[in-house]
Amino acid sequence: MDRETFVKGQLEAVQKALTKYEVPLKPKHARRLIVGSHQERSSAVFWNAVNKIQLEKNPVMTWKFCHLLHKLIRDGHRKVPEESFRFIPRIKQLGQFWKHLNTSGYGICNETYSRLLVDRLEFHRKYPVMPGSLMLTESQIKNA
């Protein structure tokens, strides 16, 4: 698969995953992005796609973004947490935006989920040896 097709597929997966409809995140879209992060050895394509979407438009989109990012941190390439550090202000801003809007039941949920993601990323910054999955091998435990 050439680079252009890959990027187009990743953009499509982000757009299909982050919809305003109150339906669960489809595993195939999340899986496509997770596999893409491993193929690229980076989350740059994901972040480029997300930055083009105005997540403040809909609280469900923000919730799905948080859920998708959580999955990427856990199952994506090992660089995902590190590359996501620079987006901590954006994640915090999203949480604060929805916290102050009482237009839906998602406000407090989005604020709490975004805070959890920020805490998770700060944890990975403090302990870079910890993989996103939080699973260590015996040798990693002995060397720590």
Automatic annotation (TrEMBL):
InterPro entries assigned to the protein according to its UniProt record, in alphabetical order: ANTH_dom, ENTH, ENTH_VHS, Sla2_fam
GO cellular component, one term: cortical actin cytoskeleton
Pfam families in alphabetical order: ANTH (PF07651)
GO biological process, one term: endocytosis
Domain ENTH: residue ranges: 2-131
GO molecular function annotations of the record: actin filament binding; clathrin adaptor activity; clathrin light chain binding; phosphatidylinositol-3,4-bisphosphate binding; phosphatidylinositol-3,5-bisphosphate binding
SMART domains according to UniProt: ENTH
Annotated PANTHER family: HUNTINGTIN INTERACTING PROTEIN 1
Protein name (Swiss-Prot/TrEMBL): Huntington interacting protein 1
Species for this entry: Parelaphostrongylus tenuis
